[in-house]
Each structure stands twice: as C-alpha cells, then as structure tokens.
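Hi F.,

I've been meaning to write this up properly since the lab meeting, where we talked about keeping a consistent format for the predictions we share between groups. The idea is simple: the sequence comes first, exactly as it goes in, then the structure tokens exactly as they come out, then a line or two of notes. No screenshots and no reformatting. I'm using this chain as the first example so we have something concrete to point to.
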Amino acid sequence: MRFSHRVVAWQRRHGRHDLPWQGTRDPYRIWLSEVMLQQTQVATVIPYFQRFVSRFHDVQSLAAAALDDVMAAWAGLGYYSRARNLHRCAQQLVAQHGGVFPRSADALAQLPGIGRSTAAAIAAFAYSERAAILDGNVKRVFARHFGIEGYPNATTTERDMWRVAEVELPDTGIESYTQGLMDLGATICLRRRPRCGDCPVQATCVAARDGRVDVLPAPRPARARPLRVATLALITDDEGAVLVERRAPDGIWGGLLSVPEFDADLPDAELLAAVERRFGLRGAVLRRLEPLRHEFSHYSFLMQPGVVHITAAVALNEGCGVAWLAPRDVGDAALPAPVRRLLVSLGGDERGAGREIEAT
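Output, unedited:
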C-alpha cells in the first residue's frame, strides 16, 4: 500500500474524530481552528475555540466586532498577529467576497494570515480539494519517514518537503489523509519519545530503519539567543487602578493593552522621571517585584516590574492612548498573559503594592 493509503486507513480507524471543529464543512470553523492550531497544541486551543465561536459565531459577526474585543478573546493564546490577521481577513471576506470563503486553496492563500498549508487544509476539509499541507508536525513525519536531511524550515529542505507532499497526495480520501498526517504528527510521531510501534507507516520509515528517529528532523542551527531587558511600570492610583496603554499594531503583543514599558533596567529615580516625562504623572516607587522572564520565538524577554503609586498628577498627555484599568476589569481586558498575571497579583491591596510573583 502507498504511504497515503496507509495513513488514510489508520486515520479512519485510530485517528481523532471528536475535536470540536470536526464533523463540519463550515469553512469559518475550519479556518478558525487551523489558525489557532498554528504553533499551539490542541489541548490549549479547544477552550479558546469554543469561547471564540460562541462569541463570534460566523465570519460576519467577527468582521463587525471591534478589534479590542477580538484581541481580548484571543488574549493568552499567543502569537497575536494571528488574531489581527483573523479580524482583517474576516473584514476582507465580507467586503470583497460577500462573506463567502473562496473554494480553492490558491484563492484562500491570498487572504490575510492564510498561508499555503493553512489554505490547503481549509480547502481539503471544507471542499474536498486535493491540496497538500505542510505544517510543523507534518514536516517531522516526512523528515523521518522519507529520510529528508536538513533543518525543515530551511529554504531548500522545505522545497524538498513540498515536492514530497505533492507527490504523496492520494486520489481519494483527501480529508482522512490530511487529518491523518496531522494526527500522526500530534499523537504518534512525537518530537520526543515517538510511538513508533503504533505507527502505520513504520515498515517503510527511513529513520526507524536506520535508527535515526532521535536525529531527524535536523534541529535548528545553533545561534545565540538574544536577551532583551525592560522595566515595566505598574502605575497605580488610590483606587487600585493601573495605567495601561495600547501597544503598536505590529511587533510583540501588537494591538494589546499593556503596562508602560521602558528600555533597560531603570533605577527608581530614573523610572519616576521617565513616568513623569511620558505621562505627566508624579509618584513614588512602592516596591520592586520579582523579575519576569518570558520566552519568545527569537529572544528572551526579562521584565523588571516596579509599582509606582501616583502622588500627584496632571492631565494625561493627549493622544498617548492610555487609560486607567480597574482591578475588576483585568480579567476581560486584552492583555498579554504574563502582564495579566502580574496585574492579578496586585489585587487585594488598594494602593497596588501587591505581592511578589514567581518568574515565568
């Protein structure tokens, strides 16, 4: 049996069939799940998906929603450009396509935030189009089974994998094959401790034959991981509210609310001076909290939080996009997960002094 036929037969008998976005031809739900599943595990995605579709039940409601509401629903799922592109894509679908998803992978790939592999998955599940996928899990399956050398995201290696993906497409059963590849990568051909004994294609797997399961796919070439250090100002008033500002739409945590951030680890006096210059607010540093470390895909971010209680204030600078966030609103605000945890830790002290929190 061909590789694809074995994958199809295995998926129909042993694959996943009860995920909340399965059992439908609705391209909206399929699209949403595929975007959420980019670089995020299924167990993490399921509750976000369920809450998201209950709030934005179709592409029209998502397009009509305020970006703040979309970002708040996404907060904690990470890779926030996905949420911005999701909203932009919904608006484009409504404005240019009457709210109807294109029926081909090529046309879907022209929409914001939908790459080649995601477009193929949507087209396969919604319209039974014979289109090849190649996400991170599938790359691992292909690298091991076909003995493909090189880092999977390197241009030449990825090109070789796309050739394999196209060649191996079955003539029928594209939905089961596409889901089967995803299921193999997520449940059998794991990054660590793969379950080779349960694999339907082990008999023809090059890595299993040659004892190279632990070395394929090739790891990312080693390089120094940059460390960025910044001071976070938790500016509080007598009611316990915290000053937040809208981050720029591009970059890390783009479009979310966050506490003011200053480059480098500022001493207390410099932090107070920076707050006064930027916002026209005068305060006293109540205490320094434990540093927070957060890992992004390309660098480590070390945050040095300092609680600044306002003792004197003038009107906030116009146009600086800031607001006071009450403690009761922290849970629903569009905040990055580490910042949300930080603000939650401040609750219970009317002056916002809070308590120390563990580094993350």
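Notes:
The radius of gyration is 24 Å.
The CA atoms of residues 5 and 257 lie 49 Å apart.

If this format works for you, I'll send the rest the same way.

G.
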